[in-house]
Amino acid sequence: MRRTKEDAEQTRLKIIAAALELFSKNGYSNTTLAMIADEAGFSRGPIYWHFKNKDELYQAVLGFSQQPLEKLITQSQSMAERPLEALEHFVSEWFRLLLEDRWHRQSFEILLNKTEFTEQMADTLARERKLTRDIVTLLETLIEAAIPSSDPGTAKPHSRALFVYASLMGITHSWLFSPELFNLKSQQTFFTKQLLADCRPPRPA
């Protein structure tokens, strides 16, 4: 029985991996379940055993490929007593995952460049919007802990958190859409330093 469950899970992961590859290459609309089955080396039967339809498979693909990002959020939350260190960890790991984790990178490629969102994808949109809120809330909490609220000259933590998040997404989108524009590996230290500069307490005059 255990072996049967293990085999079923391996089949499920192969389907997800094949779907991730094809969604990132062809886009959501141009990828069929038949294409995914062929890529995975199965008939369509195993796909329908694990997933009700393509939308459900798409959600599973994003859920699986975004696990490293969700883990990063949890890690950074656990470092809240050291907010500046936690912020640096989050930003630097964001770039490292983009560079080193192919599935994580492909999840962004699918979301940002290869998906036309429709009413049928309401559950996916709700999930992604929640993930966005979780990230902004994390950044806001850490920035609020890092910068004294008594300083009247500082922007609100929420505004700073939005700036950091929007900057991370902008860099990510630009690099995925036009990778020849800049070398992310060589620029990641500069990007991290610049983003963190706005999260530190102001220097005394």
From TrEMBL:
Sequence ranges assigned to domain HTH tetR-type in this UniProt record: 9-69
DNA-binding region, residue intervals: 32-51
Record keywords, A-Z: DNA-binding, Repressor, Transcription, Transcription regulation
Alphabetized InterPro entries for the sequence: Homeodomain-like_sf, HTH-type_Tx_Regulator, HTH_TetR, Tet_transcr_reg_TetR-rel_C_sf, Tscrpt_reg_MAATS_C
Gene3D superfamilies, sorted: Tetracycline Repressor, domain 2
Coiled coil spans: none
One matching Pfam family: TetR_N
GO-annotated molecular function: DNA binding
Protein's UniProt name: Transcriptional regulator
